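Please decode residue identities from the backbone states below.
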């Protein structure tokens, strides 16, 4: 269970080398009432090869470097390979032909819940409508299984467009959480140029 933070109102300095962000958790208790967009035939979802960790991390970085996505970079190879080979976790590269568009990962380990663990587009793909196609395909895939709840979290590192996009997609916010962690740029896990909108304080 996530601990409940009990701090008095006001500002609180965080330790050197740490970052903090606020996550909003959202859920969907059934498929949305709106019509889902059909998945265009020129788009593909291809499962990641669990033996090609470098290939996965390359896609992960292309989508998330400027969103402070670091978890799969600091993760041990054995654990990452276990995730990518887990039949209850569906992790895909999203492409149009040879062009990388994004990433999608659905986690069914905690049935009857499904977590939208990773969802994102490379910067050049944002705004062209493929995000809606990917989201609606994710909803179809999630509710094709006997789930009762589809959930996701987005945080203050993400694009400001992310939260309203999830709400328009049919998710409803239900709680907020604070995450405190080491700055992965200071650990060499992300380039020092990553996420320039978040100041790096050595």
């Amino acid at each position: 269970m996530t601990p409940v933070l009990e701090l008095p109102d006001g500002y609180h300095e965080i330790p050197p080398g740490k970052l903090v962000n606020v996550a909003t958790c959202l859920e969907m208790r059934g498929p949305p009432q709106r019509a889902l967009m059909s998945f265009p035939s020129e788009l593909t979802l291809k499962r990641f090869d669990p033996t090609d960790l470098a290939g996965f991390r390359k896609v992960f970085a292309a989508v998330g470097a400027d969103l402070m996505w670091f978890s799969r970079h600091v993760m041990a190879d054995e654990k990452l390979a276990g995730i990518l080979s887990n039949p209850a976790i569906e992790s895909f590269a999203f492409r149009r032909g040879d062009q990388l568009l994004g990433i999608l990962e659905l986690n069914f380990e905690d049935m009857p819940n499904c977590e939208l663990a990773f969802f994102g587009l490379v910067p050049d793909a944002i705004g062209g409508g493929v995000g809606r196609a990917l989201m609606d395909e994710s909803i179809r895939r999630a509710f094709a299984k006997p789930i009762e709840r589809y959930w996701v979290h987005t945080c203050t590192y993400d694009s400001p467009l992310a939260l309203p996009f999830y709400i328009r997609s049919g998710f409803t916010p239900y709680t907020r959480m604070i995450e405190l962690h080491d700055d992965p740029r200071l650990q060499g896990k992300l380039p020092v140029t990553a996420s320039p909108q978040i100041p790096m304080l050595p």
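Observation: Strands lie at 18-28, 43-47, 89-96, 99-107, 113-121, 149-155, 172-182.
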